[in-house]
Amino acid sequence: MLDEYKLPKYFWAEAINTACYVTNTVYLRTILKKTPYEIFFGKKPKISHLHVFGCKCFILNNDKDPLGKFDSKSDDGIFLGYSIFGKSFRVFNKRKLIVEESVHVIFDENSIDLIRNDLNDDHIENIKKINLEEKEGDSLPKEWRYNRNHPKESIIGDPSQGVKTRRNLSDEVEHSAFLSEIEPKNIDEALQNNFWIIAKEEELNQFIRNDIWELVTRPHDQNIIGTKWVYKNKLDDSGSIIRNKARLVAQGYTQIEGINFEESFAPVARLEAIRLLLAFACFKVFKLFQMDVKSAFLNGYIDQYVFVEQPTGFESINFPNHVYKLKKVLYGLKEAPRAWYDRLSTFLIEYSFRKGKVDTTLFIKNIGDDLIIIQIYVDDILFGSTNERLSHEFSSLMSKEF
User: Fold this and answer.
1) Number of structural domains found in the chain
2) Fewer Cβ atoms within 10 Å of its own Cβ: the N or the C terminal residue of the chain?
3) Tell me: the pLDDT tens digits for 43-63?
4) What is this structure's pTM?
5) Cβ–Cβ under 8 Å, residues 277 and 377
6) Do the domain assignments include residue 301?
7) Residue ranges of the Retroviral polymerase SH3-like domain (predicted)?
């Protein structure tokens, strides 16, 4: 609540009290079909007095303070909650810098007052008295000096430099880390940046480790599929760049069904199935884990003959006209999702997992009195067991295979 409305941390107690008050008033118990308030007091609560926590409000003076003719009749405030002693509201008075209770409050819920910029944790603690007494020598100067002959460069800069564009700005970026902050728009920009060249080399090295393809003579009776580089900066939760990701994808729109591929559909777990798994885990009281398989589609085997062009900028020096024959699928191929599902499904069945008859993304294995259950959502895997040791063993097994 504090983060949503950018309120200082010293309002945390007010936020907790308000959350408890609202929960007891509006939260409906599933079994009894009643709110906690109704269960305790035997009557339904009134909710017309509820307001948005952290919203801007105006606290009417109501003759508490002597006002002059031109003084404001109200103080700006922030709504913090409800009084436990009556029908008054708890508000933070910005003028007095105190939390007070008042019935005479007008709310402005359409404009949440984001006070983080002008009110922080240090304001209340670091209020200092200001001495306004005039000291000798503080009077304004009697004469002002000015200069009519300012050089133009100090006002408008050097006109000969022109306007900076995205292209020439990228050459001046100082990289504080070994990452590029600018995503290239085409292959030419990427080849001029060492960071993106390294990212592409990492992608191709992964192809070598996974034995994705082999270089062969260009066949004249086959459809050769083009390739394309896709560039993306990976961000963390705070929005900072943590990785330059370059992915080589096949231009699958040129594939012909029945010639280049047979099946492209891969089953995906329904949200209802995931909810049932969560409910079952709660019922059996065991922990669920989530796993994301890195470059999952590159693990799927391919049945048809599929040939792709060599990646631009990384052509073979000795065989520049050769093409790659795929052993496994690439991202962008229409059969990639299906190939990955078939590979994972076959792997799990080899280790005695049973595939669901209705939900084919569900895999179950019984080991004595224990149970391990797996739900697949493309390259995301949700799994858990009544014996947590089995979950860790499954995680290690997947890490070794993929």
Assistant:
1) 1
2) N
3) 888 888 888 888 889 988 766
4) 0.47
5) no
6) no
7) 55-111
